[in-house]
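Supplementary Text 2. Reproducibility record for the structural model of the 336-residue chain.

All settings were left at their defaults, and a single model was retained for analysis rather than an ensemble. We include the record here because the model underlies the residue-level annotations in Supplementary Table 4.
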Amino acid sequence: MAVLLLTGSPSVHEVVVPLCAAAGVGAEVSSTPALALPAWAEADLVLVGADLATAVADLAPPRRPGVHVVAHAPDDAVFRSALEIGASSVLDLSSGSAWLADALADVGERASPGRVVGVVGGAGGAGATTLACALAQWQSGRTPTLLVDADPLGPGLDRLLGMEDVAGVRWEGLVDTAGRLGARALRESVPRTNGLGVLTWSGLRRRLDVPTLRRILPSAARGHDLVVLDLARQGPHLSELADRCDDLLVVTPATLPGLAATARLVAELRRDTGAGLVLRPGSVSDADATHVTGLPVVAAVADQRGLAAAVDRGLGPLGSRGPLLRAARDLLPVAA
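Retained model, structure tokens:
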């Protein structure tokens, strides 16, 4: 049973039940709170009508997440009852039905968010975008995965993966939306193939709308086991976006110029936990790379033969076996 609705109010019933039906979730409706208590802990979402909020509070049900009081123009007494039953919010149905529709769309989704892994180049041309695509390709064969393009000047992740003609919502469409975005709605709307969803741009004129990214990232993590964020190495919001990642992979060539640039980037990020170096070919040792940047080396990725041809054929970076496949396979357990 997905939703428990406790109300005897026809006006509440007329709003909530159709929203449940539209979201495709089942609802148990009861006007007798005492009889519905066995379902209190089992429901994914509990909605208590203002008409029964006091009666529910008198029963002192066990505290649990996912409880909301719903009403038309709630008064102070409703808010007091909501506090007593440990409700997360009091929702005015006259203005908050869109929020409720989004919350219902998330019913049945994960209770805890998936992993967000950021990938950024410590130096220009290090191959961070290619590694981000490889990580997402590898994981998508095993669990729901979303690859998010946060680099407006990059090549476009859909092009690297041969997905530019796959229908779905791009950044331009999300910027025009407002309010909370459901995890299921996001997962089902972005371009997706073989379990991999990609969020990128459709045109040449690109701008990363950071408020939109802040809004959709929690939904992305609720709807996917892994979210891979391809970050631009420059920009005023890099530090903030890196902080929103559970793990950060900094890709850099093992050369003195590359590591010098990487050290400057790491200093700007001011992050010393949950971050690691992915080294590309060069003459500097792992120990020296760690000494210069302050980050541990978590992988070394050699040049991959046939990479350009695989990308040109629309196969993505894992279109041919090689170092990227091994890195994608080995890095994710480290990140997790």
